[in-house]
Amino acid sequence: QSVLTQPPSVSAAPGQKVTISCSGSSSNIENKYVSWYQQLPGTAPKLLIYENDKRPSGIPDRFSGSKSGTSATLGITGLQTGDGADYFCGTWDTSLDAGVFGGGTKLTVL
Amino acid sequence: QLQLQESGPGLVTASETLSLTCTLSSDSITSRPFYWAWIRQPPGKGLEWIGLVYFDGETNTSPSLRSRVSISVDTSKKTISLRVTSVTAADTGVYYCARAQREIDAFDIWGRGILVTVSS
Fold this sequence. Notes:
The complex is a heterodimer.
Chain A: E1 9-12, E2 18-23, E3 35-39, E4 46-49, E5 63-68, E6 71-76, E7 85-93, E8 98-101, E9 105-109
Parallel strand pairs in A: 1-9
Antiparallel strand pairs in A: 2-6, 3-4, 3-7, 5-6, 7-8, 7-9
Chain B: E1 4-7, E2 11-13, E3 18-24, E4 34-41, E5 48-53, E6 59-61, E7 69-74, E8 79-84, E9 93-101, E10 109-110, E11 114-119
Parallel strand pairs in B: 2-11
Antiparallel strand pairs in B: 1-3, 3-8, 4-5, 4-9, 5-6, 7-8, 9-10, 9-11
């Protein structure tokens, strides 16, 4: 059971937009930065979003992040078949005094 | 560009100790804002945060693993080490080392990971 809750799967057609939610609590998301990761099959996770809504160099602006209260959201516009992957949210939990991740969401681009 | 490389045995016998090393490609192990973390992923499952270490040796480990996990740093060798004692099949998975920054906690650099299987 993950501390952060994500939907197990989402799907959308190429060119469409999709959002992935990440739900937490006051001891994690509400008061800490959220980051998002993309994991393609057989590879290490890749940082997509940090500090809730910032993109590292090289990440296209099709990817966006937002946070409100105890939830965060990853948005992907102009979906491409190559976006099909697992997506994870992460943050710090002050009650556990440890890093935490969501269970992951599998994105299928139909 | 900094690179991280995990190494260690791919097969460990149940009840024994798992030992892994993460080697950095540059001297940035002593960069003050950063810490070095171990994260694992059981087959077909999500990411699990194991713990972290700063260059000065300060560590923090997951409450669920604290009694079995130790993490250390050797700045002269540019390595971060992980030990997990009394392993079981539940410790099977891909183990990653990664870099993050204090208070931001976003993992911007990852190793390729190493698959560790616990056999009975």
